Each structure stands twice: as C-alpha cells, then as structure tokens.
Amino acid sequence: MAHKIIMLGGRRSGKSSILSSILYALNQHTSGDLFVVSDQTNYSAQSLDGSCPRLSEKRLEVDNYLRIRTRDRVGENSSFQVDMTPNKGKGSYILRTDITGAAPVDFEFIDVPGEWMEDSSTHHNELRDIIAQSDVYVIAIDTPYMMQQDNENINTVYNRIEEITSMMANIKIEDNSYDKKMIILCPVKCEKWVRHGRADEVAEAVKRSYRTLINTWVSHEAVDIWIMPIQTVGGIEHSKLLDGYRFYKTEKDKVGELCSKDDLTGQIMLKDGKMLQESSIYHIDEDPDKSLYFSYTQIPLSWYKTNGAGFSPKFCEQPAYHIIEFLVHKESLVMDMKERDLGGGFLGWLRRIFNPPFGKYLRRYQEMVNQLNNRGYIKTGEDGFKHVKSIVM
What we know:
Shape: globular
Number of strands: 18
Largest sheet: 8 strands, mixed
CATH architecture of the largest domain: 3-Layer(aba) Sandwich
Number of helices: 12
Strand order of the largest sheet: 2-4-5-1-6-7-8-18
Structural class: alpha+beta
Strand content: 15-25%
Number of domains: 2
CATH superfamily of the largest domain: P-loop containing nucleotide triphosphate hydrolases
Radius of gyration: 22 Å
CATH class of the largest domain: Alpha Beta
C-alpha cells in the first residue's frame, strides 16, 4: 500500500513542477548508497487529456526552453509569460524508493486541479475523501501572486487560499497520539526572492496568507507544519505582474492571443518575450481579457525573465526528505504501539487506517533516515525553511 500525499494549489501554481523537480533532484543529489527513486506511474492507464504529464518530459521541457532562450538571446532584456492554462483532471504519480536490504516502497502523489475545490465542482466530494485519506498535504504557492502588495485579494483568489483552508478542515485524525499528519506550505517560482537573500520575507508572507489554515492545525499535537520555499527552475526570476489583454494579428484571426502592454514603452508583450508595436496588428481589446477573471477578481499575467543560471533547481529534494522522515517516524510510533498491544480497540483502528508500507523493513528505513540526518541532507532552517510551531498573530 502506498502512502498518499496530496498536492493542492491554484491553477498552474506548480504542483506537477514540484514533483518533476523532486524526482530530478533526488537522483542528482542523493547518494545511491542511501536510496534511489524511480517514477513508476502508469501513464497509459490515466486519461489522455494532459492531466498527468510525464514528470521526466516536464523537466526536459523546462530545461530545453531555457537552453533555447539562452541560445537565441531572446530573453536577456525581455519578459516572457508562464502558461496559465488549467489542467483538466487528476494526476496520480507513483514514486518508488529502493534501498539496499529492503523491499521497494511506493509513495502516491495525487495532483488535483484547483477547480476541484469549488463548491460547484462535480469532484468536490471526491477531493474531500482524498484529503481525509492522505498522510501528507503539499500546498503549492505561486509566490509572485503572494508577494504582490497592491491587491491581497488576487493572492487569495489565485492561490485558492480560502478553498484550501476550508477543504483542509476535512483532515481526519484518529483520537490518539499515533495518527500523524504533515502539512508542507511550498512556495514555488520564488527564485527572485530566495536568490537575493529575501527568503524570510517569503516565509513571513506565507504565514500571513495562510494564517487561518496554520492556526487551525498548529496547536494540534498530531499535525506537523513546515514552510519550504523551493526553486523548481532556478534559471528564471519573476519580472512583473501586468494586466492581460487579447490581441488579433489579422481580421481573420478570431481567437487571438494573450498579451500585456509594457508599462514603459507601451509596446505589446507576447508570451514568448517578443515585442510588437500596436500599429503592426489588427486589433487589441481595450479591456483586460475576460478569461483572467476568477471569482470576480481580475488576475494579472505573471511575467518572468532568465537570470543566466540555466536549469538549476535548488532545495527540491527537501520536501521528499521531510516526507520520508515524517512517515518513517509515524510508522515507528504505530509499530511501537502494536508491539505493546494495548488492546483490541487500538488494533482495530490500526486495521482500519493503516497498512504499514515499510512493514518488516521499517528498521532499515529508520537507519536510512538517520544517515540522511547525519550527512546533513535534511534542511531544517535558513533560506525561508520554517518549522511552524506556534499561532500566527
């Protein structure tokens, strides 16, 4: 039985990017004598609508995109737009760990579209059930929308903070000290701040933005809450937030493309970083594009620029290290309780909710976690990493 980790967040907030970066970073930065990780996802069994893109392909897509921009020198002094097209369905990814002297263990990462959290969604109840069954909750946070100060409502709406907070009320914790849950608040697209020594600003913004969620669970002894800013790309930094418009190249163009207007030159900024004079096109809408209105809030387009670092993810292995450490600790507590055998009531609870994935190899996984700590692999502070232990005032 695989441990369930649910990925929550707004539209295109970076959930699948986190997973592809975790897979890449673990294989790049974890010594093979500790463990190796592989993608065991059955992609062919899932929908063909793009809801479950291959993690390796997603990583290569980003890497190649940055190589092209560097080669063509398109993005040195211009901004480009990150795709905001919503995913259509749930993706279920299986990452398998293999360590010497133990059977492989699977971890199921469930990536759900932000639209599932809407009350009107036909998948609303399904999401509630997944949340109730999960051990770990990774909340992807689109950092640029969180850090903009002009309109806090944009952050609330785009990152779906209120919906996530409401859905997380469905966490089910058995009434004993051995059922544990972990919440990871994971700011992504944060290179601009973390690379320039402003990681603590990001962490404080997370506390403010997710204050209600944190305060709901931080005093519960069974819930562990972390803030972990990770750089899933490294080679890009946020540039600006600008209103999105739709332009039409010719009279025959009935679909158009999203763009913004440069606030200094008035030129039209295309999503690939190229610039056009308004006089060179057929038409541009006078009002911001209607597709960018969520919950009666106008969401600006987020623009980025390259910083010369290429594809250089940083800290992406950390959520996985912390998740493994947490789940090994949780199972250790349960197995200790089982050995003491405090009665049929407990064992009945154990059978209902817990089929121990580490099983007879638990001790080997405990040793592996100890080695991770002894080698300094598991990050517990600095660069915006915070173990949240108290109420946010």
